[in-house]
Specification:
This protein is an alpha/beta fold and about 240 residues long. The chain has nine helices and ten strands. The protein has a six-stranded mixed sheet, with helices on both faces. α3 crosses α4. The N and C termini lie far apart (about 40 Å).
Length: about 240
C-alpha cells in the first residue's frame, strides 16, 4: 500500500483548471520529485495536498485513509499528516531560531515545552545548526534560514514532507548546504515530495520522478528513465534544453 496515493486530483483557480486529473503514488520512505516547466502545476500539487488550493475532483489517501478536504476540520487533519516548506522561509525575525522551531508544536499542538525544546535542538543538529539555537534569523545566511525552516516543518512530526523549490531563492553557493540537509532526511527515511529544478540532485536523491506539463503528469518513473530516455516528445524537449547546461 502506498504511503501517499493521489488519484485523479483536479484543482482550479476560478474558471482556469490548473490540475487536470493528477495520479501519483509515493511509497513509505520514498522520495518523489516533480519536475517540469514553470506553470506546469508542480507547486499547485503541493498546495492542494495541504488544502491551500481547493481540490475540485479526485481524492488523496495517506496510508490507505482517504483525506477529506471538504471542511476546515478535515483540512487540519490532513495538515497533521503533512508539512510543507516553501522557497521563501518566512521565519519570524523577532524570534530566535529555537523559538521559531518550537512555536507551532507548543502553541498549536500544545506539547510539553521541555519535550519540544529537546526535539528542536535535535532537529537543528540534524540540519547542521545545532549551535544556532539562540541566534536570530538576521544573523544567519539564506541557506541557514532555509535549514531552520526545514527543522520547523519537521518539528510538527509530519508523516510526509513537501518541499517547494526550497533552493530557488538562494545564492548558488548556499544551495548545497540545504541539499545536504535534505539528503540527511532521506537517509532517515522521511517520505518526501520535492519540487525542484536541481536535476543533478533529483537524479541522486529521488526514487521516482514525475514530469508535469500544463497541469498533467505526462510520465513518471525512475530518475534515470525519465531524465535520460523519456517517452514523450515534450519531456525530451524539456530535458534536452536544461540538461545541456
Amino acid at each position: 500500500m502506498p504511503h501517499l496515493a493521489v488519484s485523479g486530483v483536479r484543482a482550479s483557480y476560478g474558471a482556469l483548471e490548473v490540475l487536470k486529473g493528477i495520479d501519483l503514488t509515493v511509497e513509505k520512505g520514498g522520495i518523489l520529485s516533480l519536475v517540469g516547466p514553470s506553470g506546469s502545476g508542480k507547486s499547485t500539487v503541493l498546495r492542494a495536498l495541504m488544502g491551500l488550493t481547493p481540490i475540485t475532483g479526485g481524492h488523496v489517501e495517506i496510508a490507505g485513509e482517504r483525506m477529506d478536504y471538504s471542511s476546515a476540520r478535515a483540512v487540519r487533519e490532513a495538515r497533521d499528516r503533512m508539512a510543507i516548506v516553501f522557497q521563501q522561509y518566512n521565519l519570524f525575525q523577532n524570534m530566535t531560531v529555537g523559538q521559531n522551531v518550537t512555536l507551532a508544536p507548543t502553541k498549536i499542538k500544545r506539547r510539553p515545552k521541555d519535550e519540544v525544546e529537546a526535539q528542536a535542538r535535535r532537529l537543528l543538529t540534524l540540519v547542521g545548526l545545532g549551535d544556532r539555537y539562540n541566534s536570530y534569523p538576521d544573523q544567519l545566511s539564506g541557506g541557514q534560514q532555509q535549514r531552520v525552516a526545514l527543522a520547523r516543518a519537521l518539528a510538527l512530526d509530519p508523516q510526509i514532507l513537501l518541499l517547494d523549490e526550497v533552493t530557488s531563492a538562494l545564492d548558488p553557493e548556499l544551495v548545497n548546504e540545504v541539499l545536504d540537509a535534505i539528503r540527511k532526511l532521506a537517509d532517515e527515511g522521511m517520505t518526501m515530495i520535492i519540487v525542484s529544478h536541481e536535476m543533478a540532485f533529483v537524479r541522486e536523491v529521488a526514487d521516482q520522478v514525475a514530469f508535469m506539463d500544463d497541469g498533467e503528469v505526462i510520465e513518471a518513473g525512475p530518475p534515470a528513465l525519465i531524465l535520460d530516455t523519456p517517452d514523450s516528445q515534450r519531456a525530451r524537449d524539456f530535458f534536452g534544453k536544461i540538461l545541456r547546461h
